[in-house]
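F.,

This is the one I mentioned.
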């Protein structure tokens, strides 16, 4: 049950007025019944609470504005705030009613105020303009009827009390929502990471293939080098050629490892870094293309416009390409067509780069097209797909304020990504790819 805060302060330099208001608020049998009837009408929705109404107000009086302000400060500090103040407009020689109200509200901004005035020295508009909190102010013209005072006291002390209740409820709700959002964010981050790991797992076969071949080349060339140096007058030039071959092949492995690392890295700090589109496409292809090649699928990639850099989290964008390529691969696996291909087209349109990923697979039936972006929607057998690829893709592209959609006008399956092109290329210091690779190769050897 809510207990109404019945602490009231009356601020008036005229003792008669202070007395008159106090008297009106005093408990009187007859008057109480009348006012209780009124309250029952006003607050009939919460019978439980109206039962707690009585007219026993706790009244403080002050002759001057500054004295009232000190009373309000003391009451607030003692955690026994006033819910209502009756304030006179003119209180010579001290500060006037408007100044008193301003100061009260700096200490206790939720205090309800009845401003009592007999003069028209300030217009209603002036008063509302001067005070920051007009919704907590009522102007009462003198002389007043005691019943008005009673009504105002009953109504405004109740309003104050429910205001406190509501603010508490809102604070509690906000705390619950904050906690829930933190939980959802953590869960989302975990799901993204799981999806990445699942995608990576799927790629592992292709990667093993991709690394196995160059490894075989390195082993073969190292054996050849051993054989060459075992001859007394070995040919320096042939050895140099073999060493070059080993270095080149090691570079290739290093590149694959770099690409894998950029996919698994769980770091969003790069979101505003400019990245070369060419490099991101290459990273993706380094991971995926072997799988396509060994299954007889052609990958045809347009030359990436060299000047295109995108301000993005490269991990997310590479993950987007991988998701789309993996989907195309799965679709092409189910296709009976002789010719299987995947194409990537680029076009710069009005400061944006449009990337189209098209496959010659069986397409997406009309009735599924609306569903494919929903999280966990998959047509793949249990265990084969999580149904998160496209929903993640869509939210990653949204994170970058881009557009992602299925181009329904294309006769093949065609997903389109649109991203803003980063304009200040001249300010970017290009990473020295070869140096990075060389260091990687050296540390691997
Ligand atoms: N290129 C495509 N051709 C045909 N159907 C596709 C293609 N890309 C997506 N789909 C359809 O959209 C569905 C949802 O794709 P999404 O990538 O979200 O999940 P998934 O591939 O099933 O699972 P995963 O979470 O492993 O990616 C797929 O199950 C498939 O039915
Ligand atoms: Mg997928």
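My design for it:
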């Amino acid at each position: 049950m809510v207990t109404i805060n019945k602490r009231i302060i009356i601020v008036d330099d005229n003792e008669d007025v202070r007395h008159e208001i106090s008297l009106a608020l005093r408990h009187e049998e007859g008057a109480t019944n009348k006012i209780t009837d009124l309250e029952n009408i006003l607050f009939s929705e919460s019978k439980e609470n109206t039962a707690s109404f009585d007219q026993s107000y706790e009244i403080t009086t002050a002759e001057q504005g500054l004295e009232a302000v000190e009373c309000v400060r003391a009451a607030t500090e003692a955690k026994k705030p006033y819910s209502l103040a009756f304030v006179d407009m003119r209180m010579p020689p001290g500060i006037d009613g408007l100044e008193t109200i301003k100061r009260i509200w700096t200490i206790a901004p939720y205090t309800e105020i009845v401003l009592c005035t007999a003069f028209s020295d300030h217009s209603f508009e002036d008063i509302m303009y001067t005070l920051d909190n007009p919704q907590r102010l009522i102007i009462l013209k003198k002389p007043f009827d005691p019943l008005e005072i009673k009504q105002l006291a009953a109504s405004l002390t109740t309003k104050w009390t429910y205001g406190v209740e509501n603010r508490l409820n809102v604070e509690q709700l906000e705390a619950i929502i904050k906690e829930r959002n933190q939980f959802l964010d953590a869960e989302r981050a975990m799901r993204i990471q799981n999806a990445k790991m699942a995608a990576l797992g799927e790629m592992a076969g292709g990667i093993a293939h991709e690394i196995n071949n160059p490894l075989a080349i390195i082993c073969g060339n190292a054996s050849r080098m051993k054989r060459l140096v075992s001859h007394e007058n070995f040919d320096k030039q042939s050895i140099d050629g073999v060493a070059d071959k080993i270095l080149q092949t090691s570079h290739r492995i290093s590149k694959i490892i770099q690409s894998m690392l950029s996919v698994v890295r769980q770091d969003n700090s790069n979101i505003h870094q400019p990245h070369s589109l060419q490099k991101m496409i290459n990273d993706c292809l380094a991971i995926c293309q072997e799988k396509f090649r060994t299954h007889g699928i052609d990958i045809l990639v347009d030359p990436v416009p060299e000047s295109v850099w995108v301000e993005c989290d490269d991990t997310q964008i590479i993950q987007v390409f991988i998701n789309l390529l993996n989907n195309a691969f799965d679709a092409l696996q189910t296709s009976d067509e002789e010719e299987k291909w995947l194409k990537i087209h680029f076009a710069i349109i009005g400061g944006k780069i449009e990337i189209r990923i098209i496959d010659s697979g069986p397409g997406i039936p009309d009735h599924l097209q609306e569903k494919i972006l929903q999280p966990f929607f998959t047509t793949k057998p249990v265990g084969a797909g999580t149904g998160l690829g496209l929903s993640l893709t869509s939210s990653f592209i949204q994170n970058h304020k881009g557009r992602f959609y299925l181009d329904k006008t294309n006769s093949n399956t065609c997903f389109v990504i649109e991203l803003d092109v980063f304009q200040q290329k001249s300010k970017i210091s290009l990473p020295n790819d070869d140096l990075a690779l060389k260091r990687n190769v050296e540390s691997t050897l």
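Residues 323, 326-327, 385, 389 surround magnesium ion (ligand 2) (CB under 6 Å).

Talk soon.
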